Amino acid sequence: MSTARRIATLILLLAVAALGWCAYLAWQDRLPLPPRWNPLAPLGLAEEPGPLTRYKLSRLADAPPAACYAWLDAAGVKHQPLGDRSETDSCGWQGATRLSAFGSVRLASTAPLACPTVVALALWERHALQPAAIVQFGSPVTGIEHLGSYACRNIYGGAADRRSEHASANALDISAFRLANGRRITVLDPSRKREASPQAPEGLFLREAAQGACPFFSAVLGPGYNAAHRDHLHLDRGPYRVCS
């Protein structure tokens, strides 16, 4: 082995050893890592999204539902845990809850949702949705209108398509936002005003809200994705990653 390869191997071994030692110290609570950078620290509502956010969300999703419900309660989310529901054709839900409000936002109608999806909504509301509303309108979001969360169907309703995340209450389709100042912003843009003026506040707000959802959700689909999403913003925590 050449001297250069020996040095490279030694550096790699030292790096692995250092990472292992840091992980051990963090596990022993002897390394004061900020919670945002500590993979063993629980997910916090006030925690800014970072490289470990998805991992912590997944860890909470893998925990017993009671742990997720407790997280929602501590975060002040208004919800009612639901019993598991099983239907034919691979539909139903496990560890779901009926959501009515989160943060400063109240849903126009309650929605059954998988608990980790509600956690993602709460994080999105705090770290992306409200900041976007304040920047663009100087007024917070107080209400969300939606087209539904649970539906036993395939993607786009096609018989040959795979099951939609709606079939397991793992998705929410948002159609409009209401602000504290009375303003209502719909995702649908029938007059194409936003298309003609992409820098107008409404268009900027919707784009920032959608992009801000990507750290917390697997799929974020809106009017820019395809015609089927022209009137709503689809958020889900399924296995497929797409942010449009």
UniProtKB/TrEMBL annotation:
Pfam families: Extensin-like_C (PF06904). Residues 67-243 form the Extensin-like C-terminal domain. It comes from the Bacteria. InterPro entries: Extensin-like_C. This is Extensin. It comes from Xylophilus rhododendri. The lineage of its organism: Bacteria, Pseudomonadati, Pseudomonadota, Betaproteobacteria, Burkholderiales.
